[in-house]
Each structure stands twice: as structure tokens, then as C-alpha cells.
Amino acid sequence: MSKIATAGNKGKGVRSDCFIGLEITSQAGIQVECVSKVKALYGKQIESEVKEIAAFFGIKHAHITIEDSGAIPLVIAARMEACIKRLIDTDKEFLLPFLPANNYETAKDKYRFSRLYLPGNTPSLAINAGIHKPEGIILDLEDAVAYDKKFEARYLVRNMLRGINFYGTERMVRINQIPAGLEDLSYVIPHHVNLLLVPKCESAEQIHLLNEHIEILKKNHGITHPIWLMPIIESALGVMKCFEIATAAENIVAMAIGLEDYTADLGTKRTAEGAESFFARSLLVNACKAAGIQAIDSVYSDVADMEGLKINVLKSKALGFDGMGCIHPRQIKVIKEHFTPDAMEIDKAKKIIHAFMLATEQGLGVVSLGSKMIDPPVVKRAERTIQLAVSTGKLPADWRKEFLESE
Amino acid sequence: MKCKNFVVNAAGRRVPTIVNGQEMIPYMGLEKYKPSGRKYAPPIPTCLDYPSDGNKIVDSFEQALRYCGLSNGMTISTHHHLRDGDLVSNTIFDIAYTMGVRDLVWLPSASFPCNDPLIGYLEDGTINRIEGSMNGPLGKFTSYGGMKGCAILRSHGGRVQAVQDGEVKIDIAVIAAPSADMFGNATGAEGNSACGVLGYSLVDMLYADKVIVVTDNLVPFPCMPFQIQGNYVDCVVVVDKIGIPEKIVSGTTQVTKSPDRLLLAEWTAQFCSEAGLLRDGVGIQTGAGGTSLSVGLHFHEQLKANGWKARFGFGGSTQYMVKMLEEGVMDYILDAQAFDLEAVRSVRENANHIDLSVFQSYNFHSKGNYTSLIDIVILGATEIDTRFNGNVVTHSDGLLLHGIGGWQNCLHSKCTILPVPLFRDRIPVVVDELTTLCGPGELIDVVVTERGIAINPLRTDLLDKMRHSSLPIVRVEDLKAEVDAICGQPDKAHISDKDEDTVAIIKWVDGTVIDTVRKVLD
Question: Which of B397, B427, B520 sits opposite A70 (nearest CB)?
């Protein structure tokens, strides 16, 4: 009986990917048939790469067909390994070198205005994702990957975590819902993931279970850097348990809301006005602030409507959210621009901070601006605005010097 | 052998000095070659040989070609203003074939997919070779060694140079005219097949032995405003259709939707702004590619935001440039080709949207050129090497797939910027050595990729200005290292290294041979 496995994507519109068919045979060595648009330049390298991987797994006789649309080596390796793992039971992993540039940690309270969703089985979208400078990229193993592609997507996500330069953005993976998502962990935890998104989260127990598994893997692989969690609330039950989930573990840094699933669970529809989700969003923001973590809003799905996105971001910010997911690089700029303070907010904050500093310098107990008294929370908010403006490049760190000169 | 006596030129490329039996001068380095003597001139005609009633209309296209003496080995020129909707060029060779004429040289100003059927005539010997551009299947056919003669690729300006200094002698020029009168006056602005401007055919009008105007919209004398002067025209042919309107101009040219290309455009515009290149009174050229259109949109916004005006935009024109003109952020469009319907309309309606000829913009034998007056030129490339040399005609697998167009000519602007992806589907754009050299690195100032912007070390002024920029300014060597890390260093393409396998030569703007294209082996 011959054994055949396939992995990858092919067809019109597929780029930077390959589709591999592997049949383990009993004689004639390794036969490779390759159709590729880059064959003149990479045909030999593609062939020797798949042969090397076959040899690594001890395969001596096989018939390999490759339909390539310009896949880079780590993609070819992921496709090949997925084929092999479908046919052979082995613990061995074919790992390409870990890119030193990806060896960084992220801080618990780093800004997370925008994080870009990338379907975990679509390499063409991931290769250039980092250049658009979102605060984070999400390699998605959950809803963006078809059920029968989940197996192969894990190898691709693993290889992309190791080998694609994301230029300092926080490297996130959305695993599958717990408990199924626990299976994903061994493909991501050992490969320097910074944060895991936990979809359809409905209880603190899920987080505890997840952390137990993470700890075991961290210990086995000698991993010391933090791995943060961002639960996603996507159901009525999840919403009602927001605070319990937000405070379930120390490594939870943010919590997000997923409105498509949530509104479906309510039996209603998502509208532009968002009245149906106001309660949930507000509750989630409250739970997050009470827990001292960031609140992250749902994605805006019309990628062509930048004005609609802007309005959505401003509403979201007004509710108290700290960031939003994006599904297209074009959305990053709008999200960043409008989650960070605008010119008027910065201007007002500068005046308040200046008045506060003046009052402190003069030993006055009361801060006033013009004829108005300024309460401590107002100063605190202004401080946050200034801090945000400075760290996002909207205001120079030494703004006060210029401010004094202009006074 | 179609190419002989090979030497190594000043760019280090091995090139023939005899091509199709004609002597050629190897590239001598930038601005090194200056021919002397007098320009080529066509035979002296007299008005006595033409009907005094001004009616030069002949009964059929075939009759016109016979009248002009179509015979073996002649050079026939056409122009690409009808672009992919051209129904005239192929017809010439259909007629030649039925007449049994052989070994013709086709001198188009550019070719399009609609010209692919000519492969049949290249195979059967009706056409010996193309001197012009070869795109798509025609390029592939040439690359695999199908053409009998050696193809010669010239820029738009190089075509004029070759005609003016007599390197190319046009026997019959066929000018497809969207509107014409019986005398041969013609315009591109009116008619069913309106294409805007006819600037590429002016040199043929002046220098060809015989000139045929073919129109599907005969208007009473005088055809106004004419760009082609009937005084140079031998005969006029009226046909049902010269072109397919929807293929002549795209309904609309579109800005790229690719986020990566949009980023290139954004960085390019920001670069121009930070380097002080974009300013009040600027002259710009942005082309019709998706990325460069997006650069143009950024320019529009920035000019507007600063209360500045561009003095001129250099065409090809598009709806986006027309908008700049109409919104008052640009004084003039100087235009050699209109790419979309809005641009055609503007040429027709707006006195500040001006026809331009290649003589004014691109010609080596002109007393100065507009291109060197343009402040910012945005171009593309298939490959760029670490010395900023560029390739625009072949892909890295060796296949000839694009013409030079105005690319070489535009390199002479004050600042030439190439926004290009660092790789296309694993194929590096920044390379160690070009497959084909089309433009010397001295003229390419900035390469903008999604992984960093490299400034030509010769441009110390730009390096200084961008020293503190927030843009990712890198060395071109860094880009090369990064692309190799991502894609892996490619193997050598399967291209012959034998002289006898030369399938095309690439001319520099001065008429010298800058490189050869050799046969692709498969």
C-alpha cells in the first residue's frame, strides 16, 4: 500500500507558497518533480532542500511533487515536514536556524495599539508584515486557518516564528480554543513567541490549564523570557466572567473582545453604531482597568473604509480601549494615529503638566490653569497623554523647553 | 552570424561591433560618445508630385504600401499610441505577407500583447527582426532565439537618435491617426480611437522616405489641431477601424492596492519631502505604474498642504496628474502619452496640457532635453546591482519581457528614484550582477525598498540631507545581504554565454551598445 500526503497551497493568486505531494515508495531512491516559476534560479536548491529533509527523517525512497510559486526555504521546509509527519510517526523536528534578530522580549506594559492578524497558513502575507510596523503581529492558527489545514499550519507558523524577521514587533500567536489549543503549544512556545492570544475564553480555569502546559514546555526547553497572554472574550459567558479571566494569571497583559462571535452568541448582528456590544465592551474595559491590564477592541472588517475605521477607533478610544486588532496593513496607520493623542489633546496636556510643574516648583498645593482648579486625576491623565505622545514620536521628549520659550 | 567582432565595452559587458551587418559603437562610458557630421535627411520631394487638390487618399492600405514601394528588406515604422488596441501594425505585415515581401525590419516605438500574432511572420521570414521593444510572448520568442535578425532595443529617445543620425533609415512610416484629413494632417485628440497625443511619430514624419497616415475618422480639411503635418505625408488611407478604444486607453489607471507597494510610495514621497526635492515650482514625472501613481498622490497632498505648486508634470499623463492640473497644484502637463480617458479629455480641453514630442524631452541629438530639468523622476526596474546599475528589459531568468521605453532617458533627471520591492516571489531585485545592463549606476540616485532606502554614494548631498531622517536609510550592500538571507542566493540562470547566441542588443541613449541579451537555454 502506498502512502501519500500533501501540504501547502497552489492555484491562481497563490504566491510565495508551494504545494508538496509526498509518496513514500519502496525503491528507486528520492524522485523529485518540480514545477516552479523560479525554477531557472532556484530549481536545484528546491530539490536539494526537500531531499535533505527527507534524508533527515530517514526516508530513502519517495516520490515528491512540488508546485512552487516562489516559496522561500522556510516555507518549503514547513510543507515538506508536514507531509512527512502525516506519514511517519516521529518526534524529530527539522528546524532551520533561529534568526538572531527575532531574539527579543517584550514588556508587559508595552503599547499595543495595533496588532496585525496573519493567517497562519498563508506565508505571502507574513513575509512583509513586520515592515508595516504594527505593535504586534498575530500568526493565527485559529479561525483564519481551515480545519483541514490546521495540521500543516503549525509547521509553517513554527518556521515563520523562527525565520521571518518581524522587525521588533511583538510576535504573537493565536492558538486554538482551549483545550484543543494546547496541542499548538509545542510548535510555538520553544520558538520565542512573545504572546499568545487565547480565543473564546470563558473561564479562569482555561487560563490556568494553559499556563500549566506553558510552564512545562518552558522548563523543558529552558525558556526564561516572559510569554504573555491575551484572552479574547467572544461569548456572553466570557463577558460575564471578564474580571475573573483578567485576573486569572500574572502573565495576562491585555484582554480583547471578539465581536463577530459575541454578537452571534447574543443572537444579534454587529452594527456600525455598536449598541448591541456597548455593554460587553464597557464591561471588558472596566474589567481590564480594574485588573491593571490593557483593553483591546475587536477588528474593523471593512478594509477599504478608512474613514469608518477612524470613527470606530475614536469611539473605541472614548470607551477606554487601548488598542485594536487589524486585518490589513493599511489599517495600522489609522489605528495608531487615532489611539495616540491628537494635537489638541497634547496641547491641553502640555498646559496642565506645565501648570502642575510650576505649582510644584513654587510649593503650591493647588494646581490651577487660568481660573480653573485642576484635580489630581486630570494631571494623571495629562501625564499619560504626554508620555504617550513622547513615546510615539508625536512630541519631543524635551517639549517643555520649547513650551517655556513660547510662553 | 548576425553579431560579430565582440569587444568588452566600458561597462565591462561583452558586446558586438557588427550587428545585422551594420557597424556599432560599444558603450564608452557616461557622456563619452559624441558623434559628429550632419543629420540624416530623407530624399527631397517636390509638391509637383502630389495632387494639387490636396487629396492624397488612396483606395486601400495595400495600395498605399504598394505606392510607397514596399519591398524586401525595408524598414517599416509604427508607433504605440494605440497601445494594446492597435489594429494597424499587424495589418501592414498581413499585407506584406500576401504580397510575398520578406525580411522586413519592424521599427515600432513599443510593442504590446496585441502584436503577438507577428511571431508567425518572424517565423516565416516576412519579418527579419524587431528594432524596438519586445514584451511578453514576443520577448519570449526572441529570448529563445526565434528571431532571424538580432533585435535592437532602444529607448524612446534612442529611437529618435538612431533615426536622426542615420543609423536607422525608415523606408515607410505608418502613422495610425484617430482623426485626419485628406491632406494627411492628423491628431490623436479626436475620434473613436482617440489616444491623446501622437508625439512618438513625429520623428518618423520628418525622416522617413515615405509616410502613410491611416485613419478611421476622416474629417474635412483642415484637421485641427493637427500634430502630424500633412506636408510630410505621402498618402492617406481610410479604414473602418484603427483601434479598439477600450484597449487604447485604460478606462482608469489605478493606484496600487498592495500594502507593500503603498509603503514604498509613502516612503518615496517622504524622502522627496525630507530631502527638499519637493518644493514650490518643482517639475515631476511619476509614470503610470501602480506604485508611482501612489507617489503622485502623496506629492499632490504635500504640495497642497504646503501651498506649493508644481511648475510642470511630465507625462505619460493619468487622471491623477490631470487632477493636479485642474485643482491648481500644477501649472502644466508636458505630455508624450495619455494613459487613461481622463488624460485624453484633458489633452483635448485644457490649454495647459501640452503635446510633447520626443525631440523636446528625450533626444540625444537635441540641443538640450527637458528630462534633465525634471527634479524628481520615479521609475521601476527588474534588477538593480550594488553599484546602482539598473535593468529594465530582462527578468533574472534571462527572458526579455519589457521594452526600455523612456526609462533610460528619464535617468537624466536631477533625481531618479526607483521604488522597488527587494524581491518578487523569492527573486531578488537587488543583485550582485545584472542579467542585462540598461542604465549606468551614475544616474540612479535612490533605491527605495520595503526593507530600507539606499542612496547612491555619489549623491553625498542627499546622504547629508537624510542623515537624521526617521526613514530607514541603509547601504545598498545591506539590502543585498538581507535579500540573500531571505531568499537564498539564486543559481545562475540558464543563459548561453556564447557570442553566436546573441539575440538582442541594448542601446544606450547615445547610440552605443551597452549590453547584449543572449539566448535562454531550457
Answer: B427
Query: What residue ranges do the domains of chain B occupy?
Result: 49-248+497-518, 259-487
CB hemisphere CA count around A129 (13 angstroms):
32
Top-level class of domain B259-487? alpha beta
Cα angle A92, A95, A97; round to 5? 150
**A-B C-beta contacts closer than 8 Å:** 60
**Minimum CA–CA partner of B470 in chain A:** A393
CB B366 within 8 A of CB B161: no
Contacts of B425 in chain A (CB under 8 A): 15-16, 37-38, 69-70
Strand partners, B448: B419, B453
Q: What is the ipTM of this complex?
A: 0.89
- At CB < 8 Å, which residues of chain A contact B? 15-16, 37-38, 40-45, 69-73, 127-128, 131-132, 165, 328-330, 393
Cross-chain residue pair A38–B425, CB shorter than 8 Å: yes
Q: What is the DSSP string of A76-141?
A: HHHHHHHHHHHH--------PPPPGGG-----TT---SEEEEEETT-HHHHHTGGGG--SEEEEE-
Least CB-CB distance to A38: which of B262, B263, B426? B426
pLDDT tier for residue A1 given thresholds of 50, 70 and 90: very low
Element (H, E) at B262: helix B259-274
Rounded CA-CA distance A90/A67 in Å is 26
Minimal-distance CA residue of chain A relative to B522: A40
Share of chain B above pLDDT 70, in %: 100
Give the model's pLDDT for residue B251.
Answer: 67
Contacts of B259 in chain A (CB under 8 A): 128, 132, 328-330
- What band does A407 get if pLDDT is binned at 50, 70 and 90? low
Asked whether the domain spanning B259-487 has the same topology as the one spanning B49-248+497-518, the reply is yes
- In angstroms, rounded to a whole number, what is the distance separating the alpha carbons of residues B187 and B77? 18
Instruction: Tell me the mean pLDDT per 10 residues along chain B, length 522.
Output: 94 98 97 94 95 97 97 97 95 98 97 95 97 92 96 96 96 98 96 90 96 98 95 97 89 82 96 97 88 93 97 90 96 89 90 87 92 95 97 96 94 97 96 97 98 98 95 97 96 95 97 98 86
**A-chain residues near B140 (CB < 8 A):** none
Domain B49-248+497-518 in this protein, CATH class: alpha beta
By C-alpha distance, the chain A residue nearest B451 is A131
| pLDDT tens for each residue of A221-272 | 999 999 999 999 999 999 999 999 999 999 999 999 999 999 999 999 998 8
Question: What letter does residue A225 receive in the DSSP assignment?
Answer: S
Q: Sign of the CA dihedral B118, B124, B127, B129? A: positive
Query: Hey, what domains does chain A have and what are their CATH numbers?
Result: 3-87 (3.30.230), 100-339 (3.20.20.60), 343-406 (no CATH)
Nearest to A72 among B263, B426, B520 (CB): B426
Distance from CA of B431 to the nearest CA of A (A): 13
Q: Which residues of A touch B397 (CB under 8 A)?
A: 38, 40-41
> Which three cell numbers, joined as nine digits, stand for B57?
487618399
From chain A, the residues in CB contact with B424 under 8 A are 70
Round the average pLDDT of chain B to a whole number and report it.
Answer: 95
Q: Which of B252, B251, B238, B250 is nearest to B191 (CA)?
A: B238
pLDDT tens for each residue of B153-168 = 999 999 999 999 999 9
Q: Do B486 and A127 touch (CB under 8 A)?
A: yes
Inter-chain residue contact B259 with A393, CB threshold 8 Å: no
Nearest CA to CA, how far is B354 from chain A (Å)? 35
